[in-house]
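Researcher: Structure prediction, please.
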Amino acid sequence: MDLVAFGLLAAVLILVGVPTIAGHLPQGGASGRGGFPGMGWNLTNAQTEIASLYQANGHSYSAVTPLLLASSAPEFDWLPGGATVGAPAPAVSIDVCADGPACQAVVLATDSRGMHTCWYGVTIDSSRAARAFGLRGAGTFYGSRRNPQACSAGTPGHPARPASGWQATLSAAAPHG
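Model: Predicted structure follows.
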């Protein structure tokens, strides 16, 4: 396993494991900070599923589709990027960019279920792809938008742009006020 793939997998596992072990999720439940805790688990679990498919597909997002994700993670309602999230079940909108080295990224969006906040996660594989998101390097980033007209990951070539900007942590992306 090459070092980049190992690093990506380790980062996703840390994102899922650290909040569980250390209890660092913000307090307040669904009534505090836009429904952050439940949304955080949806995003990190969805990112873990995508990381597994990325690894199995030779370090490419090209095979990551809502249909394939539905078979590997049926607990979510996986929707194509342009679809608006808002279903009663945990729904995740996904926009995949797999156009070679210039674009290896996945954008996710999930609604906080009635808290009027759309949450976003993006996993980017290269500094080159990061520039399309206004970022300097590869990694996983988060964002949010309060009271959006629609909550979706975007469409190919037009990814979602969270009002909070892309942040390094879920808590930094949480809307304030």
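Model: The beta strands are 77-80, 91-98, 104-111, 117-124, 139-146, 154-155, 158-159.
Researcher: Thanks, that helps.
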